[in-house]
Every structure is written in structure tokens, then in C-alpha cells.
Task: inverse folding
């Protein structure tokens, strides 16, 4: 059975919104986009490629899929990050999209989301990675479909924004790896307890 791995940049106050840029996701009046930049370390990029080697699919909510597709689809062949993201099979969960033509190798999941994702997990293959996609992560966590959390925890408090873990969720986890970086970021990997 395949594993679903949630891979996120997260602040100390559980925020995952707009880590990459000021205009990435301003929903709800969020004004701290790009909060990860001052803490970059090359080990973060190296880990990205390790994680991609262990996966063969991405599972994303509509908004994250659109943001990623807008960034990666136009990248020329030969860009290492673009090649890794564009080559993967993508599954996008949305009730409003009617086509996935905006980003290659994408499949739309519109109905019976929990059942469809259970079926994806049952297929042979490598890990399925989710990033961003707060609404989808909340739903999958509530249905106990997430096998691992791979979190880059940043030494910053953002004071608001979209959260990784929803209110009211009780989720016992077991730490399987911890790796601090000189920039103050800590990789924390957890599986279900």
C-alpha cells in the first residue's frame, strides 16, 4: 500500500499559508507571504529531491494545484525543480475545476474524495505527496488517511493564516526523524502513533 506524506513548510504557530511569495495566497488578508525566504538552507532543496525520488504522485487541493501549475508548467525543460514537479502524476481535488489542461499529467478528483484517495493508496507505487492544500489535509487527517508528516518547522510566528492542523483534531504521532539546520529551521518527520 502506498503512503500519503504531507510535506509542509510550517511556522511555529501552525501556519502553512503562502510560504513562497508575497502574492502566493493572500486569502483572508494574509500579508506575510514569502516567510520562508530568510531561512533558506541548501539541505531543504536536497531533501525535496530525496522526497521526490520516493514518490510518484502529488495530491493537491485546487488552489495549491493552480499556484504550483502556474509556477512549474511554464518552466523550460532542464530546470531541476520544474522537471521534478512537471513529471509527477498530479491528482487535484476540486468541485469547481472542469479541466486539468493547465498543468500536464494531472487528473481531477471531483466526487467521493475519501473513497478515491483510499483507492489511490491501494494501488501499487511510491509515496503520494501533499503540500499546501490545507482544506484537503484537514479532511484527510480527519479520515486518518495521512501516513506521515514531513514538516520543515520555521522559527517564526505569523499570528494568523491557514493552519496545517484543524481545530479539534486529536492525532497521536511518533517522531521518526529530527534534523536542525543552521538557519534555525528543523525538519520534523512523524508517523501515526
Result:
Amino acid at each position: 500500500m502506498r503512503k500519503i506524506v504531507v510535506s509542509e513548510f510550517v511556522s511555529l504557530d501552525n501556519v502553512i499559508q503562502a510560504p513562497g511569495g508575497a502574492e502566493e495566497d493572500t486569502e483572508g488578508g494574509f500579508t506575510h507571504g514569502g516567510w520562508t525566504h530568510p531561512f533558506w538552507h541548501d539541505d531543504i532543496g536536497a531533501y525535496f529531491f530525496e522526497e521526490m525520488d520516493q514518490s510518484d504522485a502529488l495530491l493537491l487541493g485546487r488552489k495549491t494545484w493552480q499556484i504550483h501549475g502556474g509556477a512549474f508548467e511554464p518552466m523550460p525543460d532542464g530546470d531541476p525543480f520544474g522537471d521534478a514537479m512537471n513529471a509527477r502524476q498530479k491528482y487535484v481535488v476540486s468541485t469547481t475545476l472542469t479541466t486539468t489542461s493547465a498543468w500536464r499529467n494531472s487528473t481531477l478528483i471531483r466526487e467521493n474524495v475519501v473513497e478515491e484517495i483510499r483507492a489511490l493508496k491501494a494501488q501499487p507505487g511510491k509515496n503520494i505527496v501533499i503540500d499546501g492544500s490545507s482544506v484537503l489535509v484537514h479532511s484527510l487527517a480527519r479520515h486518518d488517511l495521512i501516513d506521515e508528516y514531513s514538516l520543515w518547522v520555521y522559527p517564526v510566528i505569523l499570528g494568523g493564516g491557514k493552519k496545517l492542523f484543524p481545530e479539534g483534531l486529536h492525532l497521536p504521532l511518533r517522531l521518526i526523524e529530527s534534523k536542525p539546520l543552521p538557519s534555525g529551521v528543523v525538519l520534523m518527520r512523524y508517523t501515526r502513533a
In short: Residues 102 and 164 are 26 Å apart (CA to CA). Helices lie at 42-53, 62-72, 80-87, 113-122, 134-142. Strands lie at 4-11, 55-61, 89-93, 106-109, 127-130, 148-154, 173-180, 186-192.
